[in-house]
Amino acid sequence: MTKLSFTLILAQAAPLSGRLAFAAVFACLIVWLLVIPSSHLTEEDQSPAWWKRSRTWAVIVATSQMLIYLLWN
Amino acid sequence: MHLNSIDLALVVIYLIGVAAIGMWVSRGVKTGRDLFLGGRSLPWWAVGTSLVVSDIGAKDMVGLADDGYRFGLVMTNFDLIGCVFPVLIAAFLFMPFLWLAGVYTIPEYLGRRYNSAVRYFFAVIWALFMVGTLGVIFVSAATMFENLLGWGFLISVGVTATLVGVYTVFGGLKAVVYTDFISCLVLIVGATLICVIGLVEVGGWSALQEKVAALPNTEHHFQLLRPASDPDYPWPAVLLGLGFVLGPAYWIGNQAIVQRSFGTKSQSEARASYVLCAAIKTVFPFLLVLPGLIGLALFHDRLGSASADSWKVGGVLPELVKLLPTGILGIVLGAFLAGIMSNLDSYVNSASTLCVTDLYQPLIRPKATDRECLWVGRILIVVFLLGGAFASFYVRDTFKSVFEAFQTFLSFFQGALLALLLAGMLSRRATQWGGLCGLLVGIGLAAGMTFYNVLFLWTAWWSFVGALATVIIVSLMTRPYDEERLRGLVCWLPSREKETQ
User: Within its chain, how far is the Cα of B120 from the centroid?
Assistant: First the structure.
C-alpha cells in the first residue's frame, strides 16, 4: 500500500521531475556544443566573428529550449 | 463557404508566383545530380527554411490544430525536444560526416556501411512510408478544400497533385528549396495571423486560459509536460520515445530532410542550415498548436469536447479560418497551400531520388546514364504522386487524425533505423550481420507492439532498444569489416583524403 501511494505521488509530481529531466538534456547538449574542438568545425578554422559562428547560435537556441522547459508551466 | 474575389486573387497570385519561380529555377536542371541534389550549390538560408517546411506543412497545420484542441501544448514537444535537440546534434556530429561521405541517400550509406540487403530493405520501407505520407498530406489538403471551397475529396487531391507535379517534375531539389523559402515566410505570416485574430476573438491570453480551464478534461492543456500517469503523452515516453528515438531518427535518417543538406555548397553551410532550422523551430510549434486551444475555447459546442472519442476530426482549422477577414483569408489560404506544396514536393522529390539511387541503378540498370536517371526520376515523381493519391483514401478511412497517421507510420521503423545509424556511424565493431538482425528485430518488435496497441512513443523506444541490443550482441559474435573498408563510413575513421588534408 505504501509503495503504491509513493508511485502515485511520483506520477502526480512528475511534471516537475519531467521539467528537470528535459532541461538536463539541453544542459548536456550545451556543454557538448561548447567542448567540440574547433578543428572539427571547418568555419572556425578561419576564426570568423562570434556572431557568424553556427556554434554560437546553436548554444543560444539550446539555452532558450532549456529555459522554456524550466520556466513554462 | 466561398472565397471572395480579393482572397481568390491573392491565392492565384501566390500559386502563379511559386510555379513561375519553380519553373525559372528549373532551367539549369540537366543531370540527375541537378535534379536530386540541386547541383550541390544551394545556400544555407534557403536550405534552412526548406528544412522547416519539409517537416511542418499542411499535415501539421491541420493535424497540430486538431491535436492542440485535444491535448494542448504538450504537442509542441514534437518540435521542441523532438526537433531542436536532434537537429543540433545532427548539425555538429552527423551531417558533416554524411556530407563528406558523398552519398545521395541514407539507404546508400547503410548499404556501404552494412550490406546491400540492408540498403534495399530500407529503400523499400522509405518508399512505402513516403507513399503513406503523401496520402496524409493529400487528406490534409482535401479537408481544407472541402470545408472552404466545397470541393469533393477526389477533385481536391487531383488539383493538389497536378499543381505540385508541374514544378517538381522539372525543377528538382533546387526548385523545391527555393519555393520552400517563400512557403516558409508565407506560412509563418499565415500562422501568426490565425493566432493573433483568434486570440482577439477569444478576448486575450487570460480569457483563453479561463475558457479552456472551464471545460472538462482540460487540466493539462497549458502544460508542456503531462504526468507520467497520463495515458496519451506521459513525459517519460515523450522524452525517451520522441526525444531520443523518433526525433533523432527523423532528423538524421529521413531522406526528405537529409537530402536538403546534401545539396549545400559546403559542410559549414549544411551545419548553418540546420542551426537556422532549429532557431525557427523554437517558436513555430506554438503558432501551430495555439490555434487548437483557440478553437477549443471558441468552437467546443460545435466540435465536441476534448475527450478523444467524441470530437469532430479535422474540423478545427477550417472553423478558425472562417473568422478571418477578407484579404487576410487569402494570405492564410496561400500559407496553407504553401504548406501543402512544400510538404508534397519535398517527399515526392526524395522518394524519387531514393528509388533511382537505391533500387533502379543498383538492381535494374547499373549502367544507366545520368540523363536516363534524370528521366526515370521525373517519371517516378508522377508515379509517387499517383500512389499518394490512392493512399489518401486509406488514410482518410483508417486514422482519427492526420498527425496520428504520420506518427504511426514513422514509429514502425524509426527505432531500427536509428539503432543501425548510431551503431554504424559511431562504432567500427558493428557488423553487417549485426545490422541485418537488428533491422529485423527492431521492425518485428514495432509491428508486434503496434498490433497490441502499445502507445507509439513506447513502440519507438522499445523497438530502438531491441534493435540496438541485437546489433551489439550479433556484432560481438561475428567478424567486423577491415578498418580500411570502413574509412569514411565511421565517425572516428576519416577517409584517407581527409586525413591527408
Answer: 21
